[in-house]
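Help needed: design a sequence for this.
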């Protein structure tokens, strides 16, 4: 792994990486499904991690049948999700603030690049109290194809005015790691669900348990090695 200062920019995913949103989505989807007489298994919910909304809809239909009332499910999911986050809010993931401080100390540009839609991104960032942290935000609405295709990351590099090959991408899902690899960027895998995806481990350049460990790894790479 290269030193953090070797990169021209850092690109953050949002759901499950910066924000602890995935558990709130999973709970809302499960509650909506149960209210309609269905049930999602934990492995199925975990398989939705990192996917854009159209891909999630396709997987839900494949699971529950083509005649499943997707419109009602989406509406109910939204209601249950907002009820939940209005009470509990949304937390940032451990180590995010400290890692961001270090990136700022190194004067490295950064942005957010997510499969979520713009309206949802703005709402989540507001609820988490970090709506002003990212001056550049790329969402699913900005590109033709979402992750695992590379479009979102390529657009992010374009907006940052750097080569994607000089970008470091932090991701928590297989879809995100696949997009990073296809784009030609260096990637760090920070798993947000269990069991940890083995393919994502194999594809990524570095695997850490959380952003605090990522920070420790980057700081260690910057420290000089003492001669024995």
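Sure. Designed sequence:
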């Amino acid at each position: 792994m290269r030193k953090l200062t070797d990169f021209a920019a850092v690109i953050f995913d949002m759901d499950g990486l910066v924000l602890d949103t995935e558990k709130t989505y999973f709970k809302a989807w499960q509650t909506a499904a149960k209210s309609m007489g269905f049930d999602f298994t934990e492995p199925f919910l975990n398989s939705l991690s990192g996917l854009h909304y159209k891909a999630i809809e396709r997987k839900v239909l494949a699971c529950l049948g083509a005649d499943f009332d997707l419109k009602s499910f989406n509406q109910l999911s939204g209601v249950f999700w907002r009820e939940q986050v209005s009470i509990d809010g949304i937390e940032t993931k451990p180590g995010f603030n400290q890692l961001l401080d270090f990136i700022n100390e190194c004067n490295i540009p950064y942005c957010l690049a997510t499969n979520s839609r713009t309206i949802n991104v703005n709402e989540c960032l507001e609820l988490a109290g970090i709506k002003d942290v990212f001056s550049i935000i790329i969402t699913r609405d900005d590109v033709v194809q979402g992750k695992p295709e590379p479009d979102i990351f390529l657009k992010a590099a374009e907006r940052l005015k750097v080569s994607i090959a000089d970008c470091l991408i932090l991701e928590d899902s297989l879809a995100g790691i696949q997009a990073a690899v296809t784009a030609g960027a260096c990637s760090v895998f920070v798993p947000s669900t269990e069991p940890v995806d083995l393919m994502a481990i194999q594809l990524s350049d570095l695997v850490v348990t959380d952003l605090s460990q990522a920070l420790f790894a980057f700081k260690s790479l910057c420290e000089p090695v003492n001669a024995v």
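The mean pLDDT is 93.
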